[in-house]
Specification:
heterodimer; A: alpha/beta; five-stranded mixed beta sheet; elongated; B: mainly alpha; two-stranded antiparallel sheet; 8 helices; 6 strands; 7% strand
C-alpha cells in the first residue's frame, strides 16, 4: 500500500467529522418541518383526500365523516382476480373488528367495470361493508390509483398509515394493519 | 413517479423490478471483482443466495412471532407474497448471520469477501434510489429552488435523484479505488465504501421531508451515519498505523 501520512489522515478525519456534525446541526428542521399531516395526498404519512360516493343502494358515504374510526379504502373491480381473491378476507376481518369501529369502503372502479357484474359479485360473496361506486373515476384519479387492487389504511385521525398496491392481501396482513390502526401503532 | 407498469392484466411493481435488476447487475460486477481477487465467484453467488433466502424466511417468521394471533387465524398467510408481512430488521440480521455461518464453514477470507461484495452493495444503493423515484418514497422537503419537483402536493427537493447521483458517484469512486494500491489491503475497499455511504447519508438526509427525528429535532439517520463514519475512519486510521509499523519492522 502506498504510504499514507497518519497524522494527515487523522487531521482529515477530524475535519470530516466536524463538517458532518456541523451539517447535522444546521439541518435540524423547523418544528413541523417533516410533518406531512396537513397536506391531503394519497401517500403514507399524509392526510387522506376526502371524497363522497354512493353505494348501489344510494347510501352516501363521506370519508371525513368517518374521522375517529379506522378505515380501509380499497379500490377494486369485479374483473380483477386479485381484487376478488382478497374480498373474503376483508369481509372476515370486517366482521371481526367492526365493533371496534373499523369500516371498509370498497370503492368499485365502476368506470372500468360492469355495474351488474360488481353487484352480482358483492351479493354472491355476501359482502356486508359499503360498496361505493366511482362512476366517473374521479376518486380513483384523486387517489392516483394506477393498478387494482390498491388499498389505503387510514387511522382515526384521517392519516394514511399504509398503502398496499396490488394484491391479493392476505388475511394476516389485513388483520395486523387494522389492529395497528385501532391500537394507534405506527 | 411510476410505481407500476401495466402489461395487459399483469401489474408489475417497478420498485421490486428495479431491485432485481440491481441485484443481477451488482452480482455480475462482484463476480468480476472476485475473480480479480482470486476468489471463487461460485462461493459469492451461494453466499448471496443463502443470505437472501435466510433473510426472507427469517423476516417472515419474525413477523409471525410478533403477531401470532393474526397468523394463527390465517396460517396460509405465512406463505403469502405480501411484502408487508416481513420484519426488515430481523430479516437483515438473520441474513447477516447466515452469511457469517457460510463464510465460516467455507473458510472464506472475510475482508476479501466483503471487498468482492462491495460493487454489489454500491449498485444496490443506486437501485434503491431508482426504486424510491418510482414509488415516490424517501421524498424531499419543500423547496423554492428551480430544480424542485412536484410531488405529494408540494414542490420538493428531488432527493431520490440526489440519492441516485451520490450512489453512482460512490460506485465510480469504488471502482477507481480498486485500481489503486489502497485496495491491496483486504477490507480497505469495503470500509471506504461504508465511510463514503455514511457521509453521503449525512449530506442527503438534510433534504428529506420524511426524516425520523429524535431529541431536539435531530435526524436519526444522520446520527447513525455519523457514528458509522467515525468508526470507519477510526478503523482505517488503525490500519494505516499497523501497516506503517509492519513496514518499519520489515
Amino acid at each position: 500500500m502506498k504510504k499514507i501520512n497518519l497524522p494527515s489522515f487523522i487531521g482529515l478525519s477530524i475535519f470530516i467529522l466536524f463538517l458532518g456534525a456541523t451539517w447535522i446541526w444546521i439541518s435540524i428542521p423547523p418544528a413541523g418541518g417533516t410533518t406531512q399531516g396537513e397536506i391531503r395526498v394519497p401517500q403514507e404519512g399524509f392526510s387522506a383526500p376526502d371524497f363522497t360516493l354512493e353505494t348501489f343502494g344510494s347510501d352516501t358515504y363521506t370519508l371525513s365523516d368517518l374521522r375517529g374510526r379506522p378505515v380501509l379504502v380499497n379500490f377494486w373491480a369485479s374483473w380483477c382476480p386479485p381484487c376478488r381473491s382478497e374480498m373474503p378476507a376483508m369481509q372476515r376481518v370486517y366482521e371481526d373488528l367492526q365493533e371496534e369501529g373499523f369500516i371498509v369502503l370498497a370503492v368499485n372502479s365502476t368506470h372500468q367495470d360492469n355495474l351488474g357484474d360488481a353487484i352480482t359479485f358483492a351479493q354472491i360473496r355476501q359482502l356486508s361493508f359499503p360498496i361505493l361506486l366511482d362512476l366517473d373515476g374521479a376518486v380513483g384519479a384523486l387517489y392516483d390509483v394506477r393498478s387494482l387492487p390498491t388499498s389505503y389504511f387510514i387511522n382515526p385521525e384521517g392519516i394514511i398509515q399504509d398503502v398496499v398496491v396490488g394484491g391479493p392481501m392476505s388475511e394476516a396482513l389485513l388483520r395486523i394493519r387494522v389492529e395497528q390502526l385501532i391500537e394507534g401503532d405506527p | 413517479m411510476f410505481p407500476t407498469i401495466q402489461i395487459g392484466p399483469l401489474s408489475l411493481q417497478v420498485p421490486g423490478l428495479v431491485l432485481l435488476i440491481g441485484l443481477w447487475f451488482g452480482l455480475s460486477l462482484s463476480e468480476r471483482r472476485a475473480r480479480q481477487l482470486g476468489e471463487n465467484p461460485g462461493h459469492l453467488y451461494n453466499l448471496v443466495f443463502i443470505a437472501l433466502i435466510a433473510g426472507l424466511v427469517g423476516a417472515r417468521l419474525s413477523y409471525a412471532v410478533t403477531y401470532p394471533g393474526a397468523f394463527s387465524a390465517s396460517p396460509l398467510s405465512l406463505i403469502s407474497i405480501n411484502s408487508g408481512l416481513l420484519d426488515p430488521i430481523a430479516g437483515a440480521s438473520i441474513a447477516a448471520g447466515a452469511a457469517a455461518i457460510y463464510i465460516y464453514r467455507k473458510q472464506l477470507p472475510l475482508w476479501a469477501t466483503l471487498d468482492a461484495l462491495t460493487p454489489l452493495f454500491a449498485v444496490m444503493a443506486i437501485a434503491i434510489g431508482v426504486s424510491h423515484l418510482a414509488s415516490g418514497n424517501a421524498f424531499g422537503k419543500p423547496t423554492d429552488l428551480p430544480l424542485g419537483i412536484q410531488l405529494w402536493g408540494e414542490i420538493r427537493h428531488p432527493t431520490q435523484i440526489y440519492e441516485i447521483i451520490l450512489a453512482s458517484l460512490i460506485l465510480i469512486a469504488i471502482l477507481l479505488v480498486d485500481k489503486t494500491s489502497w485496495s491491496h489491503v483486504p477490507g480497505n475497499t469495503f470500509i471506504t465504501y461504508i465511510a463514503l455511504s455514511a457521509f453521503s447519508r449525512i449530506f442527503l438526509e438534510a433534504f428529506r421531508g420524511d426524516s425520523i427525528l429524535i431529541g431536539s429535532g435531530l435526524r436519526t439517520a444522520q446520527l447513525i451515519a455519523w457514528v458509522l463514519l467515525s468508526i470507519c475512519l477510526f478503523v482505517l486510521a488503525m490500519r494505516i498505523h499497523n501497516s506503517q509499523i509492519e513496514a518499519e519492522a520489515s
